[in-house]
Amino acid sequence: MQSKYVLSVLVENDSGVLIRVAGLFSRRGYNIHSLNVAETEDKKTSRMTIVVQGDLRTLDQIEKQLLKLIDVKEVLVLPEDSVCREHILIRAGNSVEERASMIEVANLFRAKIVDVSHDSLMFELTGEPQKITSFVNLLKQYGIKKLVRTGISALERS
After folding, report:
1. Phi, psi values for residue 127, rounded to 5°
2. The whole model's pTM is what?
3. Is 2 a residue whose pLDDT tops 90?
């Protein structure tokens, strides 16, 4: 059965690490659904949050292959109760008349308005991936001009 898994991968913060990890996925034919990388509290390490889809055998292979890379220090498959968040910037709207109803939608989701133009609004929202997807789906009726999603950032609960 195909499932989505969230991997938390601790790596050395060196140039070329991202390309080596991405190359591993590419060579093996594994698809990355989401990838987020940033420095940790220790400037010598970065944490990659990678969302993959596959069966348990595929997941096991991904873990083993990642651990073979010299720059990879730790690979964790995060449990379902982990804290997962995503960030989005989205520009939507086609007219001034739509503003009030778009602002109502934004208020329901606690999204911030970060830019206003003559015929559109740009919103910022952080939350669980399902919340982000629901927000995007509601804004589609107003015409989405551009959007960018960060991908999932996640940590296991203590």
Report:
1. 175, -170
2. 0.87
3. no
Radius of gyration of the chain (CA): 18
Is the CB of residue 125 less than 8 Å from the CB of residue 86? no
CA angle in degrees (0–180, nearest 5) for 38-41-47 = 35
Q: At what angle do helices 129-139 and 99-109 cross, to 10 degrees?
A: 170
Instruction: Fill in the amino acid letter for 29.
Output: G
Q: Which residue has the tokens 């591993």?
A: 24
| pLDDT tens readout for residues 33-92 | 999 999 999 999 999 999 999 999 999 999 999 999 999 999 999 999 999 999 999 999
Domains of the chain with bracketed CATH: 3-77 (3.30.70.260), 83-155 (3.30.70.1150)
